[in-house]
Amino acid sequence: MQEEHDLPNRILRALRFRPKGMTITDVAKQLGVTRNSVSKHLEILQIAGKVDVRSIGNAKLYSLAQRVPISAFLCFTKNLIIILDNEQRIVQVNDQCQKALKRSKDELIGLTLEEAALPVVSSPEAIAVIEGLEREQVMTDLRYQRDEGGDLFYQMQAIPTTFEDGEKGCTLVLEDITERKRYTRNMEFLARTAMELVDMPAEADIYQYIAETIVRVVPNPRCYVHSYDEAKQEFFIRAMTPDSIRNGVKEIIGKDPVGMTFPVRGVFYSAPFNESPSTFFAMREMHFCPYFEDEELSFADACLHVFPEDTYETLQQRFEIAKIYLTGLVWQEQLFGLVGICMGPEEVLEDKPAIESFLRQASIALARRQTEDRLRRSEARFRDLVDSSPIPSAVIESDGHYAYINRAFTNLFGYTLVDIPTGRDWFRLAFPDPARRREAIAAWKADRELAGPCRPRPRTFSVRCLDGTEKVILFRPVELSDGTEYVTYEDVTEERRAYGMLLGEIAGLRKK
Predict the structure, then answer these.
(1) 3-class SS at 501?
(2) Could you report how far apart the first and last alpha carbons of the chain are, in Å?
(3) What are the start-end ranges of the H helices in 32-104?
(4) Which residues does UniProt assign to the signal peptide (predicted)?
(5) Close Cβ partners of 112 (under 8 Å, ≥ 6 residues apart)
(6) pLDDT tens column, 206-225
(7) Is residue 166 within 8 Å of residue 141, measured between CB atoms?
(8) How far apart are CA 396 and CA 482, in angstroms?
(9) At a CB cut-off of 8 Å and minimum separation 6, what does 27 contact?
(10) Could you report the per-residue pLDDT of 225-278, keeping only the tens digit for each?
(11) Residues ≥6 apart with Cβ < 8 Å to 327
(12) Per mean pLDDT, which range of 374-388, 400-414, 494-508 is the poorest?
């Protein structure tokens, strides 16, 4: 009798060491008891929720029920936990859940999820997951849009649960994954903007792009972007978004704000502002009276009083401008502009690190554009200088391609870049005789190796021009530090002819 009384515990011990499960026959053989006795006790244990059963073919496989101490689960987790019975009525909630939902346990217990009307878990998506729950736990991500703006994301685990009395239920575990989602979203955002800035055509309006990108990530946006002229020490409004804000400002001040100038010479770089490019680097939050009573700075002060004085109050009230998040477009101690995001007194700018990172990307893109523009202007000046020079000259890349020849070169030889795209083409046309061509190429290479970089290596060759004439040319090639060759050409045909005539006369005089 004692053996029969202890049989349930012996069955549980046997199952504990066989996590994959055992049949009734397996248990009976291991314990040395009858199948009927094992079957009776397994049925009782199943009703009590201590064992689970699953069918494999005609056989039933029994295993220990996976049970978690609910008290520990509720107290020692940061997640929100709601326990439901088989009718989806709330039977337990943990402290974190009460704090997050701002509802007490007494208010919630006994209500269904629909009756409780809770954020997140009372949504149709969450209820559909719970109603479809069977043996295995289910995990899903849920989104909740707050009334005050912004989204929260939760990962909900719905876990089948068996209570002490054998009744079935469900445990909901909600983990706040808002920061994880936000991080992933921000990384995707920054990866996308980085590629867009790299691929942006030179003629595209990068300031308008900055403003439009800010509008896409900031709720209820009021954004403006300034460019900065360092020489004149002036800011220019280059973009204002969305269009409703720009049109509203235009209506109030009487003209389009885009294109307006903000002179800051002697203002920003002295007291009381004492600004510099480095101080503009980090995002700052500027508060304005009267929304913030302890602030002395007014919206008019921030605008340097460039708008009509009677318009600032209207602008602030219509667009609810209580503060501005201001960030400089700064890279390597150079200021390219400013970005302002206007907000109301209760609004908070979310994802500030992502926005600052995007503005750093934009600053680098502006610096690259400025460098490219300076390079284009420098190349244009060089071309103008060389092209207007009376001295024939050419620029030859290190791979032998002709990068540039000036007008004097074409006037002297008749050839253009179309005729001589490479050094091979030049030698073929200028030295049509193969033997002379080989001599010229050998001399050119020998002089180059002997002289080295940045040292001229003059040599005279007889050259065939496009019209078939032969000219004696003094070449003065110089190899630059990057391997590029800069060559000037001087026509010494007449000098050689005169020199030859002089030698002939001298020889004649000697014969006499």
Answers:
(1) helix
(2) 156
(3) 35-47, 70-75, 95-101
(4) none
(5) 87, 88, 89, 90
(6) 999 999 999 988 888 899 99
(7) no
(8) 11
(9) 11, 14, 15, 38, 42, 62
(10) 999 988 888 899 999 999 999 999 999 999 999 999 988 776 666 655 666 666
(11) 280, 282, 283, 284, 338, 339, 355, 356, 359
(12) 494-508
Give the residue from 373, 330, 337 showing the smallest Cα distance to 234: 337
Domain 389-498, CATH: 3.30.450.20
Is the CB of residue 237 less than 8 Å from the CB of residue 258? yes
Residue 180's CB is within 10 A of a number of other CB atoms, namely 12
For the 70-176 domain, the top CATH level (class) is: alpha beta
Closest CA to 243 of 219, 216, 223: 223
85 near 68, Cβ under 8 Å?
Answer: no
Chain-centroid distance, C-alpha 140: 28
Domains 70-176 and 389-498 fall in the same CATH topology: yes
Strand partners, 85: 169
The residue ranges of DSSP E strands in 16-64, in sequence order, are 51-56, 59-64
Q: Decide yes or no: CATH 3.40.50.1460 for domain 202-373.
A: no
Angle between helices 24-31 and 7-16 (to 10 degrees): 110
Other Cβ atoms less than 10 A from the Cβ of 103: the count is: 17
Contact 389, 406 (CB under 8 A): yes
Q: State the amino acid at position 471 in one-letter form.
A: K
Chain position carrying tokens 């050998």: 442
- Non-local (6+) Cβ contacts of 228 within 8 A are 234, 235, 236, 329, 335, 336, 337, 338
Q: What are phi and psi of 142, to 5 degrees?
A: -125, 145
As a whole number of angstroms, the longest Cα–Cα distance in the chain is 156
Give me the amino acid identity at 255. K
Give 194-204 pLDDT, tens digit per residue. Answer: 999 999 998 89
Alpha-carbon distance of 404 to 381, in angstroms, equals 13
Q: Domain spans of the chain?
A: 2-64, 70-176, 202-373, 389-498
2-64 is classed in which CATH architecture?
Answer: Orthogonal Bundle (1.10)
Query: What does the alpha-carbon distance between residue 241 and residue 213 come to, in Å, rounded to a whole number?
Result: 10
